[in-house]
Amino acid sequence: VSGTVRRHQCYNSIRTVPHRKQEAVPNPEQLQWLQAATAAVHLIRARRNSGDYKELEPFLRAVQPPTMTFFQALEKSSAVELYTYVTLLLVCVLLYIFSDYLKICALAFRLPGPTAYPVIGNCLDIAKKDLISREMSEAYKNYGPLARVWIFVFPMFVVFDPNDLKVILSSKKHTNKSMFYKLLHNFLGRGLITSSGHKWSSHRKLIQPSFNIAVLEKFIDTFADSASSLIDKLPKEETILNVTEYVNNCVIDILNEAVLGVPVNSDKKEMEQSPFRQGKVVAPYRITHPWLLFNSIYKLTDAATAELNQKKQLDDFTRKMIRRRRETLKTLTPSDRRCLLDFMIEISNENPDFTEDDIIDEACTFMLAGQDSVGAAVAFSLFLLARHQEHQAKCYEEIQRHIGTDSSKQPTAESIRELRHLEACIKESLRLYPSVPLMARKIGEPVRVGKHTLPAGTEIMVLPYATHRLEHIYPDPERFDPERFGDGAPHQNPYAFIPFSAGPRNCIGYKFAYIEMKTVIARVLQNFHLSPAPGREEVQPIFRMTLRARGGLWVKLTPRKAVS
After folding, report:
1. CB of 456 within 8 A of CB of 442?
2. Mean pLDDT of the chain
3. Is the separation of the CB atoms in 545 and 283 below 8 Å?
4. What is the C-alpha to C-alpha distance for residues 153 and 175, in angstroms, rounded to an integer?
5. Which residue, 254, 181, 210, 65, is CA-closest to 511?
């Protein structure tokens, strides 16, 4: 419209170019086209504040005759011919837009995978909550190093082999998360787990120094205090209990202090009612009800309303914690304990682009993602140590040697570093039962995986649960053998063990998690002997956002003094 208003001025500008003065005035059809074209030129010049009509004139002169011939032919065409022209044009445009999608589908039809049905793909299996649990452990044997899964008409490719995973996970070209991570935006926000592109890379660069090992080791007192609180809550006589419940509460206490700055020994009434403790992730529900993956349908449900209300509560609570820490920072002394919120507030003060909303997103990410993942890892480790007495005894001897025989003595950074067999046991537990059993990425450019080339835009899944059970890497993979990660173990492909992912987009807090897990487990073993609970020796994993055990993880707990 703005171009049409000024078209005469634009046309006059071109017509007054010196070497056009001797040429004939265009006929009416040419004039109409030229007026429209010069209006567009004027609009471009106005927007970009650059350009020279003299430079554009040769282009206009070159395209005018064939363009006019084409439009004159259209004007004289019949309705059928016109519809044919439009249809062909639409087909060409659609083929161009969906060319990558068609390449991806063509590859998917050539690859093995679970039985899929037209249009709905594997959604029926997903709705039964059975696809991953049934297929995962035997997937490599059944399908080979590369398989496919259909989510409606959208194919996803599952990559199992560590060498292929290295090609993808080690490259900065493939750091964008899958479209399915958008399902977590109303839970985790747009933090390090769910964001992609420039936002992820800039936030990672800003926050990374806060996870330096020297900084993390200062949290050991927080870990130890929370573990001591856990020990006080455990029964003082021999009993059988579900360790999952106790451990999860301990991990939440740790995160309250380490992330938000709320001390373990403070008044817990406020934190007991915090949305972080009550929060529920809706993404698994949407994945197991695939029709809810469409936002137009999902937003009509009660679940969507509840999720938005929960997100508001999380944001409001975190904003209150930020205001509180801003006041605390004014009087903080070097000897006072610091939390991750303090570091992010300082980052925001020095980098205005890192806003308070960004702090909220990252705090929600650390609080919510850190609860189930670390809690599950600690619970599985205790359960496996109860079943394998020889490794529990070795860990206890190591604890006595480096921390001391006094069960009330707190570990230090140096003593935690020396608990190498305990660390090997934790890693073997994570191999068998990785806290995050599934991850997904979006391919940024064509990449060769085995015998196939994955086009740009391909959605891939990484299944640590399956990769950790490859027999050519881990012989007898179902056996609990911490020596696989012992000091004398042979060097292995780093992409064969990926409980925290790998490469530039690995978990930023994996060192934090290892120190936390070692401290909590060491304090428990200092005070209690673990043994299997009769009739509850087996575990049935449930595959959700984090790996869980159906019915919990039960052990027999005996105080060490009673054992003596």
Report:
1. no
2. 85
3. yes
4. 24
5. 210
Residue 275: closest CA among 197, 215, 188: 188
Which CATH superfamily is 166-563 part of? Answer: Cytochrome P450 (1.10.630.10)
Annotated binding site: 507
Q: How many Cα atoms occupy the beta-carbon half-sphere of 251 within 13 Å?
A: 30
Binding residues for heme: 507
448 forms beta bridges with 453
For 371, the token pair is 């609860």
3-state secondary structure 479-522: CCCHHHHCCCCCCCCHHHCCECECHHHCCCCHHHHHHHHHHHHH
Among 458, 430, 464, which Cα is nearest to 444's?
A: 458
Q: Is 310 helix (H, G, I), strand (E, B) or coil?
A: helix
DSSP letter for each residue of 161-206:
-HHHHHHHHT-GGG-PBPGGGGGGHHHH-SSTTT--HHHHHHHHHH
Alpha-carbon distance of 260 to 243, in angstroms, equals: 25
Which residues of the chain have a pLDDT value below 70?
1-77, 127-137, 267-269, 562-564
| Residue 444 Cα distances to 100, 193, 454, angstroms | 12, 18, 10
Question: How many whole angstroms separate alpha carbon 16 and alpha carbon 559?
Answer: 99
CA-based R_g, the chain, Å: 31
> Residue 228: which of 561, 522, 559 has the closest Cα?
522
Interval 392-417: pLDDT, tens: 999 999 999 999 888 888 999 999 99
Amino acid at 374: V
Q: Domain spans of the chain?
A: 2-96, 166-563
Query: Following DSSP, what letter does each residue of 275-312 receive, concatenated?
Result: HHHH----HHHHHTSGGGGSHHHHTTSHHHHHHHHHHH
